[in-house]
Amino acid sequence: MGISAIIYDQAILDQGTYEWKGAEHNPRVLKYYKDAGHPEIKEDEVPWCAAFVGAKLAEVGLIGTASLLARSYEKWGAAVDLSKAQRGDIVVLQRGNSTWQGHVGFFDRIENGKVYLLGGNQGNQVNISGYSVARIVAVRRAKEPRTILAKSSTVQAVAVTVASGAGGVAAALGQLDPTAQYMVLGFCGVALIGLGWILRERLLKWAAGDR
Length: 211
Known about the structure:
By secondary structure, the chain is α+β, with helices and mostly antiparallel strands. It is built from 5 helices and 6 strands; from the N terminus they run αααββββββαα. The protein has helices spanning 3-11, 27-35, 49-59, 153-173, 178-206; strands at residues 78-79, 90-94, 102-111, 114-119, 127-132, 136-141. A 6-stranded antiparallel β-sheet has the order 1-6-2-3-4-5. Helix 2 packs across helix 3 (49-59) and helix 4 (153-173) runs antiparallel to helix 5 (178-206). The two termini are 21 Å apart.
């Protein structure tokens, strides 16, 4: 099963979730804000289509845009041609003539000139609704996340460098005087710190699927 299908199957479980009327606020909607990176939102009337998308991505281990703006997903993930869209891909729609306002949801299907999205805040609830295809500004697909750390090319390079370097250093050290040995060990320490920093930066991007 591809990542888009996994996202869709997770998102469809929330179908029917809606804003509460009156002074009370649906805690499930408030959790969307929190999971999307905005725990400060305490009212379910704040536009939440992007919060729903971000929350569902987080539930399957992906990183969204951490923004409540629908148009923030225009550049997220990888671009997909509408003719090749799959359930669970992210579709961004324009709203009016604004360059920043819009709507975002998960692709369900194309039918009779409309794109049907599984999304939040569609009539104040999570449902599948149809919109004019002409409103589409972007179709994006999540990058497949790694489940095995060793798949990272940078991690592999670091491991090979450390392993090969350790063997060479050990052989060379035995032939040096004590002062030279301390100098070599100091140099190796600096090199390992540098490799560790590269590995740290790689791991920070790992969850987003960067290769």
